[in-house]
Amino acid sequence: MSKEPSRFSAVRPLVSLVVVLISVYVRRPDFRSFVDAKFAWVKENAGKYAPRLGGNPVETPAATPEPGSDSAQPPRPSAAGEPGVSAPLPEPKPGVFSEAGKPAFDLQRVCADPTLWPKTVVLKRNVYFPAVLDGKTIGTLRAPKGSEARLVTIRSGKLGLEYRGGGAWLDPGGTDFEERARLAFH
Question: From residue 158, how far is each of 91, 92, 126 by CA, in Å?
């Protein structure tokens, strides 16, 4: 009374391996880079269907509304010379120092220099972000007060934030941006 093996039983391990490799290819940028370098045909055929490296829709929004709306996704960072790059802010005046001899905190200078930005900020109020799955917006997601969001960009006095794959524009006053920037500045 032994069961006869299914004709698909020999293929199951191979199918499982292929599914795991595809999953790792889609989710791991280091593995994808390795595979793309070794097997160009994978990049040409399968790579075009996989989400962009990092899978962060903040970097590739479909349409970028004006920074005035809280639910707009921040634009992807652009290289110099590309459309959408704003002119750099003027350099701060030299010689502005605090009593302790350290440079005085200059918010404009911090905003102009991404190396001085905090990597994350804490939200001071509830904020709604787009809920994103596989690069597609599927609804909204409420980030509660006290949540940390990743700072992506600063433009027109607004912070471009990313929370669990969705992006939104927010006033700096709605976060602890200035407090964290002051700590990092000194």
Answer: 19, 20, 17
Smallest CA-to-CA distance from 170 within 45, 87, 94, 67 is with 67
The closest of 57, 58, 83, 88 to 169, measured between CA atoms, is: 58
pTM above 0.70, yes or no: no
State phi, psi for 114 to the nearest 5 degrees: -60, -20
Mean pLDDT of 149-155: 92
pLDDT of amino acid 52? 64
Cβ atoms of 145 and 123 closer than 8 Å: yes
143 Cβ contact partners less than 8 Å away, ≥ 6 residues apart: 123, 126, 127, 128, 129, 149, 163, 164
pLDDT above 50: residue 56: no
Digit-coded pLDDT (tens) for 62-108: 444 445 455 455 544 444 444 444 445 455 445 444 555 566 667 78
